[in-house]
Amino acid sequence: MGTLQEPSALTARLQNTLMSYHSLDENEWRVAKKSVGDTVFSQYKSQGMVDDNPNRIVDYIRPGPYRLDWDSLMTAMDIIENLDQGCCVMRYTTAGQLWNIIAPREFIDFSYTTDYQDGLLSCGISVEHEEQHQSYVRGFNHPCGWFCVPTPDSTTTPAQSLLTGYIQTDLRGMIPQSAVDTAMASTLINFYTDLRRALKKA
């Protein structure tokens, strides 16, 4: 687990880990769930096209004023500490899932956003920070992130970007793995649906 005393080490670790995920051949990922235009792979990779430019898309994903307005899974989010440019520590909570078989969770994450090719990478990892709220199970995020890059024909109107996510979450608690897999696949499909709806409304 990372510590708040070493943000530069955390950013390097995050980028290196996410780049290693992103360099894997698609054949090395097993499809877990498909929706129109979106695919969720096991362990958990997701991919889909989003009609907008990377800057605006990532603004809606990273910690900030937009996320709570559209993400149906997230119930609260607070930026605990602003660090270097593009870095912060955030606390957020998630709703119960699968008829509350998976109870609400709390996460404390270090978040980092940086340039990637012609787009952006927004990533995070759980860190030790403050005591756990007794009403929540404290989950743990291994290196996670979202790559957002414009498509080759992104000069068209509207602009279009490829959004690829890698979510390595340990929900903790006594939860059957099959329930975790089902919840994660549905959550990621809903993430794309909710994000597109929010961007279209704005």
Automatic annotation (TrEMBL):
PROSITE patterns this protein is in? START (PS50848)
Any one Gene Ontology BP term:
intracellular cholesterol transport
Matching InterPro entries: StarD4, START-like_dom_sf, START_lipid-bd_dom
Superkingdom to which the source organism belongs: Eukaryota
Q: Which residues form the START domain?
A: 25-202
Task: Pull one GO CC term from this UniProt entry.
Answer: endoplasmic reticulum
What's an example of a GO molecular-function annotation for this chain?
A: cholesterol transfer activity
Looking up PANTHER family in the UniProt record yields: STAR-RELATED LIPID TRANSFER PROTEIN 4
Protein name (Swiss-Prot/TrEMBL)? START domain-containing protein
Species whose genome carries this gene: Oncorhynchus mykiss (Rainbow trout)
Q: Which gene encodes it?
A: stard4
